[in-house]
């Protein structure tokens, strides 16, 4: 079965790094530079079915932050796999981590993200 991943990250270089990283684990990756572009493109997500196997989003982005984006997804049509959403932040605070946890999302500091994502991906890729 094909594995799919969604990346929403406004930093072009970091988005490309994440795309290559997940592609190395045989994920088909959809990547967007903003939550609003992602929402427009995924407006026909099938009701009651996961649109992606894993969702990774930056927190600080123009127009909508990652917490707002995850909240919108959780309360929208997509069936999001709990514990397979990841909020990334260059400035991860206890408050941001707690808000992500309330949504059932993991939260990683960008400084440690590749290491943390490697462990997560290897646990679900098996």
In summary, what is this structure?
With 126 residues, the chain is an alpha/beta fold. The chain has helices at 12-24, 35-41, 66-74, 94-102, 113-125, and strands at 3-8, 27-32, 54-58, 85-89, 106-109. The mean pLDDT is 86.
How would you describe the overall organization of this protein?
Helices cover 40% and strands 21% of the residues. The protein has 126 residues and is α/β, with parallel strands linked by helices. Strands 2-1-3-4-5 form a 5-stranded parallel beta sheet, sandwiched between helices. The mean pLDDT is 86.
Labels describing this entry:
five-stranded parallel beta sheet, 5 helices, 5 strands, 40% helix
Q: Estimate the helix proportion, in percent.
A: 40-55%
Strand content: 15-25%
Mean pLDDT figure: 86
Main sheet record: 5 strands, parallel
| N/C terminus separation | 12 Å
Structural class: alpha/beta
Strands in their spatial order, largest beta sheet:
2-1-3-4-5
In N-to-C order, the SSE pattern is: EHEHEHEHEH
Unreliable stretches = none
Quick one: overall form? globular
Tally of individual helices: 5
> Would you count the extended β strands for me?
5
Radius of gyration, CA atoms, in whole angstroms: 13 Å
